[in-house]
Amino acid sequence: MENGNRLLSSVVSSSMDMHVVYGGVVPEIAARSHIELINPVILQALVQAETSWDDIDAIAVTRGPGLSGSLLIGVLAARTLAIIKNKPLYGVNHVAAHVYANFITEAAASLAPNYRLPTTAPVFPVLALIVSGGHTQLVLFRDHFDYSLLGQTGDDAVGEAFDKVAKILGLPYPGGPNVEKKALEGDPKAFKLPKAKMPDKYDFSFSGPKTAVLRLAQQQIGEDYNFPSYKLAGRLSETQKADIAASFQQSAIDTVVDKTCLAYEEFRPKSVVVAGGVAASSALRKALSDRLPIAINYADVRLCTDNAAMIAALGCFMHIHTQPASNPYALSIEPNLQM
Ligand code: KG4
Ligand code: ZN
User: Whole-angstrom Cα distance, residue 287 to residue 279?
Assistant: First the structure.
């Protein structure tokens, strides 16, 4: 990344196909594939950017939140490089970095045709809806590095709920994109799913709606709550699956969009951004655009799910705004790092 807004290369090596057979990420497999791929990925990123270490001003790395095995490999690789290449090192919060995917507005000529980027950067104050496999949060940024957490989920994240609903319906992991695809064939009004009422208006809960989907699926095939969830997919018809997928998606999206609109009314931000893996959902993008009175500039879908460009983008802003760099001999991982 250059200046926090210009994409010079983006290389994502995913171990997802190794996890699909298990229906979810297996931390040990993720860490092992990280260790095998980290050096080739770094080299490829430098080649794609047509640059060399001489031109690199700083190194950014995710220090949390995330799986400890994978975080350790990234942080140790970055610390080693910072020491031998003598570059400042920035330990980045990966959830905050999802927001910075929205600041990537330009790409090198060789990449530009492949990316649909926002034309302008967000303007502060920025309201961020962060929706991923591990997080569901509303955050108000007054400026870079000056933000307040308005609310978050107390249990499951929205992406996690999509993944669990996909499992009930027998759709492959990761669930979000597959639920979205199945929902296209279904009726979002077929079933009314409950929405959690929270004491704090900007907080979320997705464990109730997920259980409601389980009960609905059991009831649809005429069984009670004792019926095992792993057998449901074999008994549901394709129409029932599509209707459940569409109804769940509608209800989950309504929940996050309702609260985003509420926060918009209260804080009147100049920009609204949506960040994290679930921001790849076209259904969510459409609902937000329909309901918010201001236009949203969406990040390219490939920059919404986990990627290093967003980590580097936030790293650039840390460097430009003279945030303290980390000690390359001591930077530690924080698997539960909060915003
Ligand atoms: O940000 P991310 O790549 O990883 C985490 O940091 O969690 O987000 C992954 C999550 C998964 O739960 C996945 O199911 C969800 O993003 N996701 C979607 C869609 N694409 C990815 N959820 C709903 N609709 C989508 N189209
Ligand atoms: Zn993420």
Answer: 11
181: domain CATH number is 3.30.420.40
CA–centroid distance, 176 to ligand 1, in Å, is: 6
Atom of ligand 1 at shortest range from CA of 306: 3
Claim to verify: residue 106 and residue 242 sit in the same structural domain: no
Does 64 contact ligand 1 (Cβ within 6 A)? no
pLDDT surpasses 80 at 23 = no
Instruction: Please state the φ and ψ torsions of residue 89, each to the nearest 5 degrees.
Output: -120, 135
For ligand 1, whether the C-beta of 163 sits within 6 Å is yes
Are 180 and 277 members of one domain?
yes
CA distance 153 to 250: 18
Contact 248 CB / ligand 1 (< 6 Å) = no
pLDDT surpassing 80 at residue 15: no
Whether the CB-CB separation of 89 and 326 falls below 8 Å is answered with yes
Residue 124, pLDDT above cutoff 80: yes
User: Beta strand pairing status for 126-131 and 136-143?
Assistant: antiparallel
Q: What is the pTM of this model?
A: 0.94
Range(s) of the domain holding residue 203: 126-296
- Same domain flag for 62 and 13: yes
> Are the C-beta atoms of 79 and 325 separated by less than 8 Å?
no
Distance 138 CA to ligand 2 centre (A): 15
Under 8 Å CB-to-CB from 308, ≥6 apart: which residues?
10, 11, 12, 41, 45
Closest atom of ligand 1 to CA, residue 174: 14
Region 142-150 average pLDDT = 97
Site to substitute for ligand 1 among 305, 306, 310, most atoms within 8 A of C-beta: 305
Beta carbon of 306 within 6 Å of any ligand 1 atom: yes
Angle between helices 238-267 and 207-220 (to 10 degrees): 160
Ligand nearest to the CA of 160: 1
